[in-house]
Structure formats: C-alpha cells, structure tokens
Amino acid sequence: MNAFNTEQEQVEPRVGPIPKGPPEYHPYHHPAAGWGAAKAVTKFLVRERELVDGPQAIMRMNHERTGFDCPGCAWPDDIKGLKLDICENGIKHVSWEMTPKRVTREFFAKHTVSELSEWTDFALEDEGRLTEPMVYDAETDHYVPISWKGAFELVGRHLRNLENPNQATYYTSGRLGNEATFLYQLMARELGTNNLPDCSNMCHEASGRALTASLGTGKGTVDLVDWEATDALFIIGVNVASNAPRMLTSLVEAYHRGAQIVHINPLVEAAATRAIIPHDFMDMALFKSTPTSTLNLQVRIGGDLALLRGIGKAVLEMSKSDPKAVDSEFIERHTSGFDEYKNMCESSSWEEIERQSGIPRADILKAARIYRDADRSIISWCLGVTQHEHGVSSVREIVNLLLLRGNLGREGAGPSPVRGHSNVQGNRTCGIDHRPEPEFLDRLDEVCKIHAPREHGLDTVGTLQALNRGDVKVFVGMGGNFALAVPDTPHSYAALRNAELTVQVSTKLNRSHIVHGKDALILPCLARTERDMQKAGLQSTSVEDSMSMVHLSIGMKRPASPHLLSEPAIIAGMARAALPESDTPWEWYIEDYDRIRDTMSRVLDGFEDFNRRVRLPLGFRIKQPARELIFLTPTGKAEFSAAPVPDVVPAPGQLALGTMRSHDQWNTSIYTDTDRYRGIKNLRTLVFMNADDMRERGIEEFDPVDITGHARDGSTRQLNGFLAIPYNIPRGNALGYMPEMNVLCALCDYSTESDQPIMKHVKATITRAL
Fold it and tell me: Which domains does the chain have, with CATH numbers?
C-alpha cells in the first residue's frame, strides 16, 4: 500500500468550535422539531445577538412578493401562503448571515494568514461578515484592502494573460440567484470556456444524469400538490429533520390523511419516527406528536439499488395473481425496455438481493405490498442515494419502480429528488453546466452575440485534478466554501495553492480564503437578506426550488457594509475587466435586473415572459415535459434500465463508511458541536459504528480509533483519534461527519457513472488507537 502523506501535508480536521465540556452521547427519544427546535432557535438567536432583527427576518422569510427566500434548503414554499413557512435550520442560517459581527481591515492587519490557518473553521466564520475587498500580500502574509476597481483589474489581468481560456475555472455554490448565475455562465463562455463546476457535481449529478436518461428531463416531476395527494411516500437516503425540515409538515399531513410513509436509510433518523410541527400551535401546547413513518428499512450503505430491485421483483411476482399490480397499459404505451428490466428482476436472486441490501425478504415484501396497494406513489431521495459509485443506476432503478405502476404524469405520483442548497437547481437551469446542450449554446450565441465553446469543460473533480497538474491557473468561486466542501482535503488544498489566482466571492470568512493561490482576492457580496439598490431602484433576484417553482426574493435588511456589491455587480465588474472590448452590456444589465431577465427569457427554455410570470402569485413552474408524458429520449418513451445488482458488501475487515452532516450544521458551516437528534454533545470528531463491529475490534464507547480510507488506486488516507460511538446502524457500516471526514475520500474515488466523489461509500478500516 502506498503511504498517502509522503508528498502532501497531513491535514487534521479543525472544523467545529472548541468543546465546552467532555463529549456526551445520550440516545434521542423525542419528536423531531417541536419544543426542541424552538429552544434551539432561541439559544441561537441569543448567541448571535439577533433578538430583534432575527424575529423580524423570520416573519419575512419565504413570504411571497415582500420577503426573501430562505438561503438554506431548496424545499418549496407553502402553496397556501403559510405565514410561518420556516424551520429551525433556516432561522439559524438567516441569523448566521445577519450577525452584527464584522471582519474589517483592522482584523486582517492583526492576523496573518498563517495564524488564521490554525483557527477552526467555526472560529473563522464566527468573526462575522466581510466588509470590503481584500487582496493577499505575500510579503507580509496578510490580506490588505484593495479598491473594487483594483480588484477587478487584477482579475482581468490574470484572465487576459492566460495562454488559453480553459486555464480558468468558474465554480458556484447553490446560493447564487438565477440572474447572477446567467451572467456568470455568460462571462465564462464569452471568455471561451465551459469550465463551470458547481456543487451539483458533488451532490445530485447522478440524479440529473439518471432522470435525463430515463425520462428526458434532469429534474423531478412532482410538486407540493402531488405531495398532498399521494397515497404512499418512499423517502430514501434523506435526513429530513436536518436537511429539509419543512418536509416534516408534508409527512405529518400525509400521515393524518392515511398515506403510507416508508423511510429507507442506514439510520433511523428522528424525522422517521414522529414530529411536532411548530406552527401547529395546538400540538405544541399539548406536546402532541404525530408519527412520520409506517415502515423503516435500514438498508446497508450502497444497498439501495438491491432493495429497489427487490421491491420491483416482488411486484412483478404479485402481478402473476394480481394483474393490477403492474400497469401494463402504461408500460405498453409510454415505456421502452420493459422486457429487459423484467428479465433482470427475474434473474436477480432473493438471496443476493437480501445480501446486498441487508434487508430480509419479509421486510422487502412489506414495502412491496405498500407500493402495490397505493394508487399513487412518490419516491423521494437525496445524497444517500447519489454519492455512490452506482448512484445513476440507483436513481434509474427508482424510475423503473415508478414506471412499473404508471406512477408518472398524474397527480400524486412521480420522482422527487430533494435538492440541498436553495438555488442549486436554478444554477443548472440557468446555464451552470460543464456539459452544456448544443441547443442551449446555439440560443445563447444568437441572443447574446457571442461564440460559446462547444467542448465540454471541467467539473469539480476535474478542476481539482487540473489545478494539481498546473493546467488551471485561475480559480473563481461564487459563494460556498470550496476548500472545505471537496474531497481529499490535502490534495485539494495543494491544488488551490497551486493556482496563480484564487477569487472568492463570499459573505463570511472561511477556509477557502486561507487556502489560496499565489494571488488571492476576497470579494464581499450582499447577502440574500440585504437590500440590493441599483440605479433603477430596489432589485429582486429569482430562485428555483427543488420542484421547479421560480419566484422572486427581495432583501429587507440594510447591508452589512456600504462597500458590499451584489453578486451580479461583481460578475459584471470582473467580466468588463477581462473583456474590455465586449459588446455585452454588463453595466446596463446591473442597472435593472429586469433587463437580465428579459435576455434570459429569450435564451432559456421555459422562461418565456419571465418578468411577468415571476411576479405572479407563487411565481411560475418551469414546464416538465415528462410530467405531461412527453419524453425527450431517443425512443420518445420513458426508458427502463437493467443494471445488475452491484456488490456493495465490504471486504473482510473493512467497513463501508459514509459522510453526513450533523444537525447543527449547514453544508460546511458549523453552528455548534451538538447533534441533537443523534444525541451527541461536545463532539464532532467521531465515528458511528455497529456495536457488534466495535466488539469484534475490541473497541468500546468513546475509545479513540484510527480510520484508514482505502482508495481504488491503492493509496490510503488516515484520520487518527476519532471517538467511536455505538449506534443503531447495519453491521459492516460506519458513519461520520463531513467536512472532517472528507480527508478519507480520494480524488480518484469518484463514480464512473456520474463523476461524483463517492462521499457516502468510502472503503475503510477502523482500529482501536494504540
């Protein structure tokens, strides 16, 4: 085996706050949300000193026409105009953004970058909002002030001096609004590259590729009306209470009307048991909880495809005595490839399905009967399905199951991926795609009078590899915390430090400002909660939620600093500096964002009459041809797939290890070192293990352990001194927090189906530390 750290620095995780006491673990037995969430929100508002502005913002968040869209998850806004369409994590994220703390030039003068590199990521972000542009001074190892004009000139000079445009890459996180997104991709393509990596490359790339192959669309087909009408919900690989808490309302309502709810996940999360919805005041007053599941199946890590195959196999077997178990008319009229899928189901043995899924046949049959008996079913999933080698095949297997009973193109039925960041789906819709469709590029060229390149660009993994090789020299990041979010931390740090220039457009200080290129810029932007005043007046931006609804977001708070610019203005400033002779009216666009939307309406399919429709009540829904049973596939029909059941059982002595977020965290932002729903306090450097796996290795609760990740190229990655916690998890599996455990996932360990890093399925050995 090759030792990993012979050439790269060993990066120890310094992420969460310094613990205030000894680590604690007490199994959680309370409902999700409810008074626990209310108490946590109150404590957070006190800590962030937001007892006045915080509640005011809460009353404006997710409000149609007069409010701003929550910068957290992408769950849709309530269609009935609920006045408290909020959740614990959304409130925390907004308060985190609205903090009164400030990072000024005096702060940077006081601290060198070398000193800041020793700080935890929590401490960096806890310093507050960035206030003015800063540039790295290598001689003093400090960030120093720079004017916006000087910052743009530095970016422009680097970009103009590149030997070819593919030596630059343009990353975006899911927080960027649609108008800024459109300008960003326009800038990159006018400069001559499709190097547009984004957070989808690490999260739902598999979903997009699978849905496109199966249905001809890269998105789910359902909306909240469907969630209110369905008879059965299958929730796969989703920690609802932490990652999409407002979904709890839909689960509670589904249970009350008698719908069946099946959760499929290695852990039985709090949201898969019972909940109290905070805006149900009577339930809160009576401490009355509602069940949120009728069946929990603890699938082994990576075993989702096998489980889904088992459900499909069982339904096909039922159809021999119950012809209505399968919708033969739908299959005949609207699908292709059914016979191959059926043969694959028949040839997949029950023994292998049980072994690979980790679920007994009797329990699989329970799920199959729920699915057969439901007239309308929705299957919803998140990263627990996608961040695997076989993520695309697993999502296609979800579609197979839906097609089997005609659960498409009718109310209450269909696929429903749960997107993470608030506008990550909108980013892809509006052009952030390293593999753009030729039709889109043709329209972009015609409308915007540019000549966009046709060759595919770099995704996230490709960007890191190219930075390491020296093939990419300029990295521009719009939002997020790229250095901390990506896998293979030491190699990724080295990649960013190899750049000639790194540009980070951010609201708060984070690790990506500390792990920088030879030249480095920090460009502070307005937050979504803040007023964006331009020449034409107060501006709004649009976002797309995970169910394809597009609506406006309007900031309500005074900006944290008079020196902040909006994201569209920053993009336009960089573009003009890099393209001084450009005919694109960058400055004109920024005066009034309606002008950007008018151009978008001519380029983007489904955005026709954008400015009028986005101002309608609840905005508008982008058309989904597959919802109307129009399939933009080669056959013109929905495509069954027939992938074999993959072998996901760990080798002897190894465990399948997955990374996940704690409850008190949003992406790479850590609020506390407490994970309330999993019973953890004062600890993040931990690994959850099956008690039998621990006994087999001579490990007891809170014992320090060494974790070794085994990459497909034979190299290893190491984490030492993590504490082991016995947990209700399938044998052979282990779980821990990202970003601490990102170290273990090698850059070479990405899915050959989606190119996503395999963050949920690291091959690992765990031993008791000596």
Answer: 4-11+650-768 (2.40.40.20), 129-200+426-608 (3.40.50.740), 205-417 (3.40.228.10)
